[in-house]
Amino acid sequence: MPPTAPLAQAAAEHAQRCARAAASLRASEGAVRLRKSGSNLFRDRGPAPRQRLDLRDFDHLLAVGPDGAWVEAEAGMSYEALVDALLPLGLVPTVVPQLKGITVGGAVAGVGIEASAFRHGLVHDGLLAVELLLADGERVRCTPDNEHAALFRGFPNSYGTLGYALALRLRVRPARPFVTIEHRRFQHPQAFWAAMAQACQDPRLDYVDGVVFGPNCTVLTLAWQVDKVPYCSDYRGAAIYYRSLLKQRFDHLRLRDWLWRWDTDWFWCSKRFGAENPWVRRLLGPRWLGSRTYQRWMRWASRLGINHAGAWWRGRQAESVIQDVDIPIEQADEFLGFLLREVGLLPIWVCPLVEPPNAAGPWPLYPLQPGRLYLNFGFWGVVEHLQPQAPGALNRRIEAQTLHAGGLKSLYSESHFARERFAQLYGGAAYADLKARYDPRQRLPDLYSKCVLRC
Questions:
Q1: What is the pLDDT of residue 39?
Q2: Which residue in 421, 408, 422 sits closest to 450, CA to CA?
Q3: How many Cβ atoms are within 10 Å of 19's Cβ, its own excluded?
Q4: Integer angstrom CA distances of residue 270 from 247, 263, 303, 359
Q5: pLDDT in tens, 12-22
Q6: What is the phi/psi pair of residue 403, to 5°?
Q7: CA-based end-to-end distance of the chain
Q8: What pLDDT, on the 0 to 100 scale, is given for residue 49?
Q9: What is the Cα–Cα distance from 241 to 329, expressed in whole angstroms?
Q10: Is the pLDDT score of 202 beyond 80?
């Protein structure tokens, strides 16, 4: 049984960090932005204000519930560090986002998902409490039933525009040491959707996701935690996980390796940098094979204009398409047809999600229908147009098709919504009330300005 929490020393040190951060914020004037070492956002922003709040030392584990049902961690703690702290206690977060560098606070302030989402929902569906630093330097703790309940429900998908998370309490679950995996291949998408929906009803499964490799090649992956396995595969070095989906029916991994199976090759985006080449993989080694490395390379390429320059030399126009959208399963076939016909990026990750009945929502800034099965489509890359296009033309068509399907898209990347439509989709009235109450001086950018105008 894990230790009782909060631990006195951890709580005292956290309080000291909070006091310093609050004092820094109160001593400043005007607009403010966080100082970060890295980011999992994929949208360029304008020049930062001079005042930048440094919360990078908020990366500690604070408490584990005496019954092993929850964990409290500072917002800047990475999921890699959180998993490493919990696994020796026989625990794991209910939803572990796919990339090691995603932080606990970032996964809630944004939208975090993984293959356990069909049972546990998005990361914020496991939220029990959040401690926020408001724009005026006040520190508040928000729960589903206290005086800040509206802020608690409005924080998910707010991207730091209502206040900065200092600590969060999230549900956890018992962990077994290994995972057994089954890959089922399908030629017809309709059979793939039906099998995925059926799998989401199977109480024996812990994880469900899938990959579209082409119009007649899809793979459904089912996985469950176990105590023993006959062998363990290793996809941290020479072997590439997503390629294994097409090669074998059953597989086995250590739980930690399963949780980070997509990180080594950033799903399949490592191929853009030649990192699937065996010689490159040997040169980098397991330490540098991972999403943090590729994100740095991608940002360098973006700053230098490498992708667009290459397309220009080929007489084409490049457009970055980095999107995750949640589509009701009833519309999945039509939406996939659109992606194959007009976007053309393959493979495509497909992850089912359902908001669970024990979630503390509704979540007005990311309003999915409770109990409804959605499929998250993740597709990432650069599309080259043969004919000149208006800036963001393909991303705009993706947004329109998402809305046509009754879906909702994540805001971590490029968005083009009109302000009125954005407000309709992402809780505009509720957000305006929260902004007026908790940031009346508008020190933090509003959600539209940050996510669409990139201010």
A1: 59
A2: 422
A3: 11
A4: 20, 10, 18, 35
A5: 899 999 999 99
A6: -70, -40
A7: 47
A8: 54
A9: 26
A10: yes
3-state secondary structure of 80: helix
Residue 3: pLDDT over 50: no
| CA dist., res. 245 & res. 17, Å (int) | 45
Residue among 172, 171, 132, 176 at smallest CA distance from 155? 132
Rounded to an integer, what is the distance from CA 18 to the centroid of its chain? 26
Give the CA diameter of the chain. 63
Whether omega before 347 lies within 30 degrees of 0, making that bond cis, reads: yes
| Cβ neighbour number for residue 6 with a 10 Å cutoff | 15
The residue count for the chain: 455
Query: If you ran DSSP here, which 8-state letter would residue 225 be given?
Result: E
Q: Which of 208, 134, 120 is nearest to 170 (CA)?
A: 120
Residue 311, pLDDT > 80, answer no
Report pLDDT digits (tens) over 141-182.
999 999 999 999 999 999 999 999 999 999 999 999 999 999
Strand partners, 33: 52
User: Which conformational region is residue 30 in: left (phi greater than 0), alpha (psi within -120 to 50 degrees), or beta?
Assistant: left
**Average confidence (pLDDT) over 287-303:** 86
Task: Read off the pLDDT of residues 203-232 as tens digits, 9 standing for 90 and up.
Answer: 999 999 999 999 999 999 999 999 999 999
d(CA 327, CA 402): 7
Beta-carbon contacts of residue 34 (< 8 Å; ≥ 6 apart): 52, 53, 54, 55, 160, 164
Residue 123 tokens, joined: 């990361």
Q: Who's near 291: CB < 8 A, 6+ residues apart?
A: 99, 100, 101, 263, 266
